[in-house]
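[Help] Beginner question about ligand-bound structures

Sorry if this is basic. My supervisor gave me a protein sequence and a SMILES string for magnesium ion and asked me to "get the holo structure". I don't really know what that means in practice or what format the answer should be in. Inputs are pasted below exactly as I got them.
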Amino acid sequence: MLEIKHVSKSFFGFLALDDVSMRVEKGSFHALVGPNGAGKTTLFNVVVGRYPPDGGEVRLEERRTSGLATYRVVRMGLGISFQRSQAFLSMSVLENVMLAVLAHQGRSRALMRSFSAESEAKTTAYELIGWVGLADKTETPTAALPLGDLKRVDIAMALAGKPKLLLLDEPLAGLSRSERVSMVNFIEGLLRGLGITLLFTEHDTDAVLRLADRITVLHQGRVLAEGGPDEIKNDARVIEAFLGEEYAEG
Ligand SMILES: Nc1ncnc2c1ncn2[C@@H]1O[C@H](COP(=O)(O)OP(=O)(O)OP(=O)(O)O)[C@@H](O)[C@H]1O
Ligand SMILES: [Mg+2]
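Answer (accepted):
No worries, everyone starts somewhere. Holo just means with the ligand present. The predicted complex, written as structure tokens, is below.
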């Protein structure tokens, strides 16, 4: 689904990504983990076309995406939900999701004039809102939502583009313990059901080990290890650099 080949990126001489290569298989849930500053968000920004890489390339289903503008990468099948919500806080859940639907149809300007485009977008928006479990909050201003629900709005907005691959940067950050459990179950149920491939970053190791089929560990801009959850939690280098002893078995 996604191939990252020898990607490097530096900021003012600081090498944030150093020859990073990884593959995300179709249908998998792939976690990108590592300590603060490891380069996870930078790699996401390269994948979504916010940062051009200094070297290397990214391909989504064989088609090169690196160097393209974000809106073009999104059109090729990439959905994005980053830590900072993209929702307009003064607008309701329904308005935000509708706007995302119209934007993905390239019709946001038609919002004011075309009744049929608007009613079609509304139907789709209601469906997306149902998927993310917010059917009883369609009219709520997003500013009034708890963080867990706000993240669901962002995911609904990302799904409006019918992505094949969804990128989530720290979907559990800032959530309470109970919200985390429900978010993990929600992500699992929704995305597996839709058959969407997931690439995500997360500091909550328990959640990573629960969700991920495959884990890539980044450390100081380099790939330190890659494998299934059992391999990774017992990898001596990963334990030393990142996990700590409590996750190792035996
Ligand atoms: N736009 C930028 N300009 C300068 N330096 C940057 C920029 N973006 C990231 N960096 C630097 O690159 C390194 C990697 O940052 P990045 O945000 O990718 O880490 P991360 O793995 O996402 O960390 P966290 O777990 O804290 O989110 C850090 O040292 C950071 O300061
Ligand atoms: Mg980050």
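A couple of things worth pointing out: The two ends are 35 Å apart (CA to CA). The chain has two domains: 1-77+163-172+195-250, 85-162. Feel free to follow up in the thread.
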